[in-house]
Amino acid sequence: MCGIALSYELRFLDTTLRDGEQAPGVSLSLDEKVAIARSLDALGVDVIEAGSAITSEGERKSMKAVANDGLEAEICSFVRVVASDVDAALDCDVDSVHLVVPASDLHIRIKMGSDRESVVRKAVEVTEYAVDHGLIVELSGEDASRADLDFLEDLYKAGVDAGARRLCFCDTVGVLTPEKAFQIFSRLSALPAPISIHCHNDFGMATANTVASLRAGAAQAHVTVNGIGERSGNASLEEVVMTLESLYGMDTGIKCEELYPLSRMVSRMMGVNVAANKSIVGENAFTHEAGIHVHGILADTSSYEPLKPESVGRKRRIVLGKHAGRSSVELALRDFRINTTEEQLNQIVQRVKELGDKGKRVTDADLQAIAETVLSTQKEPKVKLQQLTVVAGNTVTPTASIKLQVNGIEKLEAGTGTGPVDAAVNAARRAVCGVADVRLEEFHVDAITGGTDALVEVWVTMAIADRTITARGAGADIIMASVEAVLEGINRLMQLEEARTNG
Ligand code: MN
Question: Is residue 340 within 8 Å of residue 375, measured between CB atoms?
């Protein structure tokens, strides 16, 4: 793309709470919607599409709560070209409506059973109705990328005449290409109202298409956190923002260092994992394993990092595996305050590679255990499991009782949870409370084989204060594997704390 400077302020409409929530299996509670909206507002998006008011009573309650939360952003509802949709939006106290009008002949025929002229007439009618009731209207052409461009322009112009303040071009099925997007927006940016670009990611080009459209004159980007949305999702907020900031040197007005915390929050609340290799917010985006890369990173971070992890609120992570080199192992050991001779370091590196060769990712706890073996400083675990009982079923609250030895003292505790694993982990954490106030930051289960008797591997990330550690547990019993991983993490963290206080 040629470098056309933008002569106006770039705007973002975030639709995580509408198009994002339309992702399969996702449904947010009122509190969750409000929490995400607040974070989006703090991040600096201009418009929050909070949902589609016609959907349900629950949706309207949530949207009303968002609209009355005193946020700076404009709060918007999705509406179809139906007056009753606008009425539902009005019930929610929103500032604006995203009025979506079928624009391709295919959608006009299939969705509306109608023709171009009637669609324009209805769009005008509903736009006027919404404007008359005090709403800002963003008039959207649905399936615009497969629509006749001349017709689309007529539709947009009629909408602007009827009072629409903004327009939007929806690439509903993600078939746009960056070249096409640039061409189309070079033309549409001459329309009498600012126009948005709304892209889907069916071919993995949502970000590229969005950026190309903005470069050609689109005024606003529709995005979602983590690119979540129907099918392959929408243009991702973090990708579009960081592309503009880093590759085009633009100031988007977004608080970039809040991108990662928001990504985690949305993933947690929506129950949708982010792929490890997802740009910017994926687990591996700032993780290095290969020895040569780590060596480069240690010399100069820009050698293998196009972005500084801190710029999006993240930290660099070095993981160990079969590609680990001396530098990465040395770095990790230094982090654990473990000093070695050259010879010991070589031995540790070799054992790390052996474990990596078996297809294992080497956790922090693994590395500490290897180092202890090589240095022959095996430490007695501070926390030992003596007894665990878990009760679960369809009519009981999952409850666990646990007996631990903590620093030689017997501790008996009980805990409840949303399931047996949660109950057991809660009981374990209560038993060490006061001695080690650990947080469980991540919990991940892999079934290694297929059946209900599968061997499971549990990964945990745990923290005390600013110290984070990964540990693992494995076995055929998911509850025992989970407790094993958590206790291993607690033990390692306690050892590190001890090393820190001892200087
Ligand atoms: Mn969409």
Answer: yes
CA of 16 to the centre of ligand 1 (A): 10
Residue in this structure with the two tokens 């400077």, named with its chain if needed: 5
**7 pLDDT band (50/70/90 cuts)?**
very low
Which residues are paired to 51 by β-bridges? 77
Q: CA-CA distance, 101 to 108, in Å (whole number)?
A: 9
Distance CA 198, CA 395 (A): 47
Question: What distance in Å separates the CA atoms of residue 97 and residue 89, rounded to the nearest whole number?
Answer: 7
Please tell me the distance from the alpha carbon of residue 412 to that of residue 407, in angstroms, as a whole number. Answer: 14
How many CA within 13 A on the CB side of residue 166? 26
This prediction's pTM: 0.81
CATH code for residues 11-270: 3.20.20.70
Q: How far apart are CA 331 and CA 291, in angstroms?
A: 11
CA of 173 to the centre of ligand 1 (A): 8
Ligand 1 midpoint to CA 228 (Å):
10
Taking the centre of ligand 1 as the mean of its atom positions, its distance from the CA of residue 254, in whole angstroms, is 22
pLDDT tens digits, residue range 82-123?
Answer: 999 999 999 999 999 999 999 999 999 988 899 999 999 999
Architecture per CATH, domain 383-501, reads as 2-Layer Sandwich (3.30)
Retrieve residue 189's tokens.
């940016």
Q: How far is the CA of 230 from the centre of ligand 1 (A)?
A: 7
Domain 11-270 and domain 383-501 have a common topology: no
Q: Which residues surround ligand 1, an ion (CB under 5 A)?
A: 19
Tokens 């631990």 sit on residue: 404
Can you give the residue ranges of every domain in the chain? 11-270, 287-375, 383-501
CA of 3 to the centre of ligand 1 (A): 28
Q: Residues 212-252: pLDDT tens digits?
A: 999 999 999 999 999 999 999 999 999 999 999 999 999 99
CA atoms within 13 A on the CB side of 59: 20
